[in-house]
Design a protein that fits this description.
By secondary structure, the chain is an alpha+beta fold. It contains 2 helices and 9 strands, in the order H-E-E-E-E-E-E-E-E-H-E. The two termini are 28 Å apart.
């Protein structure tokens, strides 16, 4: 999905919800399953996306639990890991984030230092969805 088509899809969801009398701010749920290295995204319970991710490799950890995003940064550079670029970062717990990666060949395998990595276009779609719907309307659930 191109960034233009993902932006159009997000705008369409917002418009449809507005036209049906519902609030333009919908509930966004992000579910990450560590055992399968997948992310399921839903809006008001309806499936939005199913993407492969990369989470913590051996010796590191991705925190489990339920969180709300506390910061969105279009481009963040990790101070801990040699200023590695982290496009479309969604920070959810003590410096842990969901963000884009340019190492897409590793998606579907645990290879990170703890963050949840996505393909850049998927990270952009998620970032824009959360930005549109709001931090308070977004839940990030991470399961073992």
């Amino acid at each position: 999905m191109t960034s233009r088509s993902s932006s159009i899809l997000i705008l369409t969801i917002v418009l449809v919800l507005g036209l049906t009398g519902r609030s333009a701010h919908s509930a966004v749920t992000v579910r990450v399953q560590l055992s399968t290295q997948t992310m399921l995204v839903s809006v008001d319970g309806a499936g939005f996306a199913n993407w492969p991710v990369s989470t913590a490799r051996r010796g590191y950890r991705t925190p489990t639990g339920t969180y709300r995003p506390y910061s969105l940064q279009r481009m963040h550079y990790s101070r801990l890991y040699d200023f590695t670029p982290m496009p479309y970062s969604v920070f959810f717990h003590r410096g842990y984030a969901i963000h884009g990666t340019y190492e897409i060949r590793n998606l579907g395998r645990p290879v990170s230092h703890g963050c949840i990595r996505l393909a850049p276009d998927h990270a952009q779609s998620l970032f824009e969805l959360i930005q549109t719907q709001g931090h308070r309307n977004t839940s990030i659930e991470i399961f073992p």
